[in-house]
Write a structure and sequence with these properties.
It contains 10 helices and 14 strands. The chain is an alpha/beta fold. The chain folds into 2 domains: 119 residues, Rossmann fold (3-Layer(aba) Sandwich), CATH 3.40.50.720; 164 residues, Dihydrodipicolinate Reductase, domain 2. Strands 8-9-10-7-11-12-13-14 form an 8-stranded mixed beta sheet, with helices on one face. The protein has a 6-stranded parallel beta sheet with strand order 3-2-1-4-5-6, with helices on both faces. Strand 2, helix 2 and strand 3 form a beta-alpha-beta unit. Helix 4 packs parallel to helix 5. The longest helix has 18 residues. Bound molecules: nicotinamide-adenine-dinucleotide. The site of nicotinamide-adenine-dinucleotide (NAD) has 28 residues, from helix 1. Nicotinamide-adenine-dinucleotide (NAD) binds next to helix 1.
C-alpha cells in the first residue's frame, strides 16, 4: 500500500484527495492544512492523521509520497523539504513563483534523487491526450496552425485571497495560461520567436495572448481570468492540419475533413467516490489520470518521465519570458 501525505486541503487538495480515494493500492494517511476543518473534511472515509502546517506533516508523518497543493509562493520551500523526506513528490503547477526557485528545486532533486512530478495536468487531459495521439499518428499530415484558449471567471476562492495577489500567484499568466504553454511546448518545443500582449491596465497579467512562430507553423495561446463569475470556464483549442481540423469547443471534440464532420467520442472514467464539485472544474479525468501515473511510478520505483520537474521549470521560464 502506497502511503500518501497531502499538504494543502483547499480547492486542488480536495480534488487530489478524491482522486487518491479512487486509486487502488493507495492510502491517504496524512493531511495538513492551516485550516483544521479543511483537513478534517478531506479525512472523511480515511484514517488519516491530521496536521496543521505542512512542515509538521513532512517531519512527522510516515508516508511514501508527498503531494503539495499549497499556494504557489510556498511550493519551492515545501517541495524541497519534502524531497529530503521521501523519494516521490508531486507539486502543483506552476512549479514555483520564480525561475530561481525552480532551479533550486531541480538542484535539490538531483542531490536527493527524489522523483518529482509537476501538476501540468493538461498532458493527462483526455481531449488533449487524444489530440496528441492524432498529431503523432500523422494520418492528417502536419500541423499548419493552432490556437489554444483558456478563459475563466476571477478565482476568488483562494485561501487569504492569494490567487488574486500577483506577488503570490503570478496572476493569470503564471497560474492559468501556463497550462496551454506547457502543452504547446510539449507538442512543438520552443518557438523560433514569439510576441506577447498582456493586460495593460487593472490587474497585472490577468490577460495574456501570445503568438508563437515556428519554422513551419504558427500557434496562438490566449488566457485570461478577467471574466465575471456568471461566465463558464472554457478551455478550447483548434488545430489545423494539412488534411483535417481538430477542434475542442462547446464540450465536444470534433474532427473536420473534406469528407465531413464527426465527433470524437472519449470514454470518461467513472469514479467510485463522490466527485468533488466546485471552482471552475467539473471533470476529474485529467487529475485522476495524472495521479494514477504518479502513483504507478512511485509504486514501481520508476522514474517520472512525463510532466517532470524539468518540464515544469521550462514552462515557468517560458511564461516568465512572455510576461517580462
Ligand atoms: N492543476 C490545476 O488545474 C490547478 C487548479 C487550481 C489550482 N491549482 C494549483 O494548486 C495549488 C493550490 O491552489 P488552490 O486553488 O487549491 O488554493 P486554495 O487556496 O484553495 O488552497 C490552498 C490551501 O493551503 C492551505 N495552506 C496555506 N498555507 C499552508 C501551510 N503553510 N501549511 C498547510 N496548509 C497551508 C490553505 O489553508 C488552503 O486550504 C496552487 O499552486 C494552484 O496554482 C492547480
Amino acid at each position: 500500500m502506497l502511503k500518501v501525505g497531502l499538504i494543502g486541503c483547499g480547492f486542488m487538495g480536495a480534488m487530489h484527495a478524491n482522486c487518491y480515494k479512487n486509486i487502488e493500492g493507495v492510502e491517504l494517511v496524512a493531511l495538513a492544512d492551516l485550516r483544521a476543518e479543511k483537513a478534517a473534511e478531506l479525512a472523511k472515509g480515511t484514517n488519516a492523521q491530521l496536521f496543521g502546517d505542512g512542515k509538521e506533516l513532512i517531519e512527522g508523518a510516515d508516508v511514501d509520497i508527498i503531494d503539495i497543493c499549497l499556494p504557489t509562493y510556498l511550493h519551492a520551500e515545501y517541495a524541497m523539504l519534502a524531497m529530503e523526506k521521501v523519494k516521490y513528490v508531486f507539486v502543483e503547477k506552476p512549479v514555483a513563483l520564480t525561475r530561481e526557485e525552480g532551479e533550486a528545486m531541480l538542484k535539490k532533486s538531483e542531490e536527493t534523487g527524489c522523483q518529482v512530478q509537476v501538476g501540468q495536468v493538461i498532458r493527462f487531459w483526455d481531449e488533449y491526450v487524444e489530440l496528441r495521439r492524432i498529431l503523432e499518428s500523422g494520418v492528417y499530415g502536419k500541423v499548419v496552425n493552432a490556437n489554444f484558449r483558456r478563459i475563466s471567471p476571477r478565482p476568488t476562492w483562494g485561501w487569504d485571497n492569494w490567487l488574486l495577489d500577483t506577488a503570490r500567484s503570478g496572476g493569470a499568466g503564471q497560474d492559468l495560461h501556463i497550462h496551454d504553454i506547457d502543452f504547446v511546448l510539449s507538442l512543438f518545443g520552443e518557438p523560433q520567436s514569439f510576441y506577447t500582449v498582456k493586460s495593460a491596465g487593472g490587474e497585472a497579467n490577468s490577460y495574456v495572448n501570445t503568438l508563437m512562430q515556428y519554422d513551419d507553423l504558427v500557434v496562438g495561446v490566449e488566457g485570461t481570468w478577467d471574466l465575471p463569475g456568471s461566465h463558464p470556464f472554457e478551455a478550447t483549442f483548434r488545430v489545423v492540419l494539412e488534411k483535417a481540423v481538430v477542434e475542442n469547443a462547446g464540450g465536444k471534440l470534433m474532427l473536420y475533413t473534406n469528407e465531413g464532420a464527426s465527433e470524437i467520442k472519449i470514454e470518461k472514467k467513472a469514479l467510485a467516490g463522490e466527485a468533488y464539485k466546485g471552482g471552475n472544474v467539473s471533470d476529474l479525468g485529467g487529475y485522476y489520470n495524472e495521479l494514477v501515473y504518479f502513483c504507478d511510478k512511485a509504486a514501481g520505483g520508476e522514474a517520472i518521465t512525463e510532466a517532470t520537474l524539468g518540464d515544469g521549470v521550462a514552462s515557468l521560464a517560458f511564461v516568465l519570458k512572455e510576461l517580462k
